[in-house]
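Treating backbone geometry as a discrete language has practical consequences that deserve illustration. No coordinates are needed to read the tokens, only the vocabulary itself. For completeness, the protein is quoted in full, as a sequence line and a line of structure tokens:
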Amino acid sequence: MDELEDTVQLNHQMGPKVFRQHEWILIRTEMTTEDDVAINNRLAKMSNVKQGQKPEITMTLGDSKLATLQRMIVGWNLTRTVYGPDGSNRDLPIPYSSGAVRNLPKRITDFVMKKINEYNPDMDEEEQESFLPSVIDASEDNLQAERVYRLK
């Protein structure tokens, strides 16, 4: 997949309270199955697995948000204002990297997450209802087939 295919630039016009005139972030508009799996794998962490104890599962929702941002942001032109000892200030570019996403201001990451979610909505109730019976039926067929196989 081409890196810039299916992308949108979020900028000052879209978020005047979020971005300065010259700033923008480029995001992918479509999340892939691989993205979804990688993000969901960051939702929880297990511990005590090797000690022979009952495993503990800890939910890590912040990690999944960070993983989403790291996978969906593909570039930016952002700056940070640096103040000198003499009171002067200047804007310095923030170099883009997947790891640098964790240091972006919350106002920016909240806006970007909102846009990612708009481009990748969850199934609505009607879609879920039409999807679930086929999954349940398939699961029941698999269970019947498994029981028959085990009996033979």
About this structure: The longest strand covers residues 73-83. Residues 7-121 form one domain. Residues 125-151 form the longest helix (27 residues). The chain has a mean pLDDT of 83.
